Each structure stands twice: as structure tokens, then as C-alpha cells.
What does this fold into?
Amino acid sequence: MNIHAYEKLWLAASLVLIVLFIGSVTYGAVGAGIAMVDDAEGVIDPDALDEDDRFADPRVEEVGENEYEVYVVAGQFFFDPGTFEPIEVPEHSQVTFYVTSPDVIHSFSIPGTNANTMVIPGEVASMTVEVGDPQEYGIVCNEFCGGGHHDMEGEFHVVPEDEFTLEADE
Amino acid sequence: MTTYIERFPAEARVIRSTFFTAFIALGIGALFGLLQVLHRTDVHRLVDSADYYHILTIHGVLLALTFTIFFLAGVFTWGLTTSLDRGVVDVRFTWAWYGLMVGGTALAAIPMFGGLIDGIDMSAGVLFTFYAPLQAHPLFYLGLALFIIGTWLAGADWIWTYLAWRRENPDERIPLPTFMVLTTTLFWYLSSLGVAIAVVVFLLPWSLGLLEQVNPLLTRTLFWYFGHPVVYFWLMPTYMLWYVLLPKVAGGKLFSDPLARVVFVLFLLLSTPTGIHHQYLDPGIAEGFKFIAMTNTMFLLLPSLLTAFTVVASVEHGARQRGGTGYLGWLGALPWRDPVFTGMALAGLMFAAAGFSGMVNAGMNINYLVHNTFWIVGHFHLTVGTAVALTFMAVTYWLLPQITGKPIWSRSVGLAQVVTWFVGMTLMSNAMHRGGLSGVPRRTAEPQYENFDFTPAFGTMAELDAGVVIGGSLLFLSAVLFLGNVFVSLTGGKDLTSIPENAYAEALSGAEDGPLILDNLKLWLVIAVLLVVLTYALPIGAIIDRGGLLGPGGSPYPLVVESGRAISIGLGEVVA
Amino acid sequence: MTEELHREIGHDEYNPVGTLVLIALYFLVLLLLWLFVYFIEFLGRDLTVVGVVI
It folds into this structure.
């Protein structure tokens, strides 16, 4: 089988590209510390979210210095919290979202940022982000979830330290 | 000079039927595409936004499954019989698979269209991916299963015919088009098994009320086990046409037959163990499995990149034989007035662009940036929507005369049609990609939100919307020109003398230059199965181990089902 | 098509140099676009998902 010299050259260049792509992604994971949404959380019965202490009362919770956990129920066609009232966290903190669904598959996505995860009934998506200066973000469901899919949105507010109060402290 | 219809009149009839079925799907799908671009951008909303999703379901299913697969079934039957110079073993069997595919499509279409019509208590507003717990009417799943079985029988027909040829020609190399049909058929069997299990074992019994619940992550994973390779089921016939027909219309020869075989073997091996790259952002799947899927996907770039070289080199060969010279000057010597050539060449050019967005989609963590955004829609409108669809339309201008004996009514209209498609898709997919980067979601009737705006890095949303509307309208116009041209051609008379001989490109480096092991399809199939087992056994095992075969709980949606079953209203509808 | 043939070019006398030029351009485009989209568009954004280890 004779392969033309130019085609051999292209084969080598193609392999260089493939190695570059896998290398970039590996750098992103190891160097920049980007973690994938994964199987870290256990399964949950979507019909019994009210028996789970995280999702019976979806909320923002302070778990350490500048560390917050946000428990979100994404259902047809709302984020709770998020839709009825904005999710609020203080500036320059580390925020972990835990999101699950009582009904169908949704997503929890903050447009214009890299925060984006699928929400699958029976599974809990967990995603940790570091927030910076105060800013108001939107939240959108980007997976088709039924006739009102386009109405499913919410807000995520990063607020100044002195304006931040936890619901429980109010 | 022999045309296809003279040599194989019985097969030509079947191919005509597969093509016409494909064209009906194309017409409806294109019209619904136009409705969607007008709806999303709020230029004109003909239907209620809740019904937009029925329109989108029909657009996706009719174009991605019906149009493509009926057309490719015809193309494969043409390629196989032409290259073996032998008819199918029993044309009644060929009609049987065609009939089953039509029957399946018709059954699935009833609830898909039913969702749009008041008074019909059936719907399938579940989109092309039908993720549980969204539930469609049982007819949707039944129709889908019958359609898939129809494609399996089509594959069996091709293999059966090949084996008959093999007995008559024990010592010959497999002709290249037949080799391509067979490798594609083998990975189609391997991959469509996933969706068959999802539909027959889980979704159909669940929609009938025989199963209480399903595991949404499992059925989703089984869908993507099929959902990625299905794009190669559309793409392989396209590659076949680029390898065996494009060099011929360019006036050249295929650069290398053995390399074409290597490419198809790589697709047989690597098409299937890649589907998890559609699930990079799924909870419940370990990062390691996602990384393995990425590695497989990245190596799957190789056969496409090799194809780019071989096909362009074959076209250049044609240009140089036609007197072309220089480093790039040879491009001017190509037959740009021929819609068959120009359509395929533009489709290939678009596919090169799609290559880039596909590389981004293949990357694991960068998926946070683009997952489920409009970027993805821009990507697959370049792949299936142009590389495949435009090639199929361009090739129709060559194949339709072969299978009907009637010349194309207007080659100039054909040329205008393929160029219009190219321009329309350039505008539309550019806007989609850029919108996606600013976070605009796919699959939504109203991508306009109350609490926030999208801010594109370059340009404005109004400009991107204009790109989508103008581009989408040009695409619809192009589809109308295509179907009109086909229709008028069919009303004309037969003129066999004006139609070129039914043949495909010879190779500069022929099959005899390739090692015999390339043709050992059993060996490649075994390796393909092993790779699939290695890639999928652990993730699927883990999903079942975590959530159980039928999942940790949950109900189907919508909860209001047809009479005869309990009507329940759940949390979802109360909130909505 | 054959009637338009100016000359017959065989396997050994054909060097697809035009293809090499095109494909080299394609390689460059892919390389630059990847570097832009991965390192500027993606890594340059806010709210990147990080591991919990801090």
C-alpha cells in the first residue's frame, strides 16, 4: 500500500491536532482545575424530594468561610430558588450548586459563563464555581422540558458583602 | 452507454420510491424549518409557543431520520448494485424493507402531527431525542422501532446480495462502493441496537403502562449510544458519493482506493464508542468515562481529516486533467457550472467548517461553553444539514436521470439552488454559532428572557436574528427550487441518449495496492464490538448499579394520557 | 466529462500540490480557531466549574 508523501505529512499534522486538542483539555482539567459534573452525588427519588433535607427546603446555605451551598429544584418550569426569588451569594465566594429535578430532564445554565449542567431526575448535579465582583446573572433551562420550556428562567445575583443576608438570618 | 434504469429496472423502481419518500419529508421538514426561524426570532409566530415543539419534533425527525435514511437507502442500493454489476437477490425483499420503513414512519407521524391538531388526543412532542420521562404516544415508539427494523432488513438485503456476488466471484476484491455499504451497515447494526433496546425494552412498554417508570439516565445513555453513530450513518453515504462520484464529475480519478477503505474501517471501529461525548455535562457519569469517550471521539477525527485530503486530491486530479495549473489556479479549471459538482464541492467546504465546531464539541471541559446552546444547532446544520443534505440534493441531479431515464429539467436552476443553500446556510449557521457562544439556548420557542439579555462578543442579537431569518428563508427557497426542479423533471419524457453512463470514478491507486486484511470485515467487526464493550460496559453497568434498571422513581410527562388509563395530574402541571 | 479532458495524468506523475496548499491553510485555520475558542473564549470566562478541593 503506497501512501503519497503529502498524505503522510497530513496524517502527521492530523495527529498533532488531535494531541493538541486532548492536551488542551487535559491542561484545562489539571492546570486550570476545571472539574466535570460527575457521579459524586448519589441517586435520589424524584417523587420524594420533600424527604431530602437538601431539597425539601431549597435554599442558599453557608458552609464555611466564604463557602456557600445552593440547593436548587429545577422543575416544569421554574428554578427554586432562582425563579420566584433570585439566588443571592456574596461577592468573592465559592459556591456549590446542587440541582435536581422532580419531573423531567432540564438544565441549569448561566448564559455567558461556563456554569452549565444537565439536570436529570434521579440524579443530583453538583457544580462548584468561584464568583468575583457583584454582578447579576440570568439562569436558563437549555434542555427541552415541555410546552413551557421557554418560560423557565431565573436569576443569580452576586451581591456586595454588606448587602448579603441569608434567608435563615432574616 | 448504459443508464441504471436500463441495467436494473426493478431496483430503479425501489430507489425511485425511497427518493420520493425522502423528498416528501424534505418538503415538510423545510417548511417547518422556516416556521421555526420566524418563530424563534419573533418575526412571525404562526403557532402557539407550546406547539412550536411539535413543529420542532417533526422538523427533526423528518429531516434527520426520514429524509436522510430513505435517501441513503436508495444511494446504497445504487452503489451496491452498480459496483457488483448485479441486481439484488430478490427485489420483493427490497420492497419489504422499504414498506416496513414507510409503515414505521407513517405510524410515528400520526402522534407527531396529532399534537398539532386540536381534538386528536395523541402527541409526541418529545423532540428528536425523546428523553424520558417526557413521554410520547405508544405509536411514536412503535413506528420508530418498525422503521429501525426496516433499516436492518435493508442492511440484510445488501449483505445477502453481496454474499451472492461473492459466490459468483470468489477471488475478487470487494468493489469500493460495496465495501463502504457493508462497513456502514455493520456499525449501523452495532449502534442502532442501543436505540432499539431503549425503545422496545423500556419506552414502548412504559408508554403502554406496562412499566411504571424508567431510568432517565439509562435511556438517555442508550439513545446517545445510537445518537452519535447515526450521524455517521448519514455521513458515510455522503463520503461514498464524495469518494466515488465527485472525482468523476470533476474529471479525475479517486486518489487512493486503499486509503478510502482504511477510512471506512476506522469509522466501523470508532463510530459507536463515542456517544458519551453528548453527555459530558450529565450528572451520574464519572469523569473518567467522559475522558475515554473524548479520546475515542478525537481519534475519530482522523478518518474525516484523511477524507479531506483524499477527496480534494482526487478533485485536483480532475482539475489538472482538465488543464488546470498552479498552486491554486487549478481551482478555476473545475466544472463550476455543473450543479452536481458545485453542490458537492460546497457541501465539502461547509463540512470543513463543521469540522472545527465539531472539534470543540468533542472537547470534554470546553463543553461547558457550548453544551445545548445554539452553537450545537449551527454545527449540525453544517453537517447533516449541508454536508449530507446538499450532497444528496446535488447528487439527485445526477442520480435522478439514472433511475428515471428523464433528464433534469433545468441544470441552471439546479446550480442556483445549490448556491442558494450554501449562502443561506453560511448566514444561518454563522449566526447560530455566535449566538451559542453568548449563551443562547437551542430548542426553545422564545429565546427572549425577562431577567437578562444575551450579549454577543461581536455584533448584536438583532444582527444574529437577521442572519437566522434571512439564512433560513434562503434555505427554504432553495428547498422549493430543488423540489420544483425534481417535479418538473418527472413530468418530462424519457430521453436515455442524453444521460451519461451509470459509472463511478476509477482509482489512481486501486484496490490491488491495499493489503487483503482491509477486506476482512469479520475481523473489523469483532474489534468494533470489543471497543464498544470496553467503552460502554462500565458506564452502563454503573448507571444501572446506581439508579437501578428502571430508575430511582419518577412519573411520565405529560401525565394526562389517553382514555383507558388513569388520568393523573402531578406537581408539574400544578406549577405550570 | 471525458470530452473535456485535456490530458491523462497517471498515478506516478501526479503530485497533489494544490491539495497540500489548501490543507496547510486549513490546518492553520483550525489551529488558530482552537487556540482562540479554548484559551480565550472558554478559559477567559467567569464562573468556571472547579473541583471542590481548596
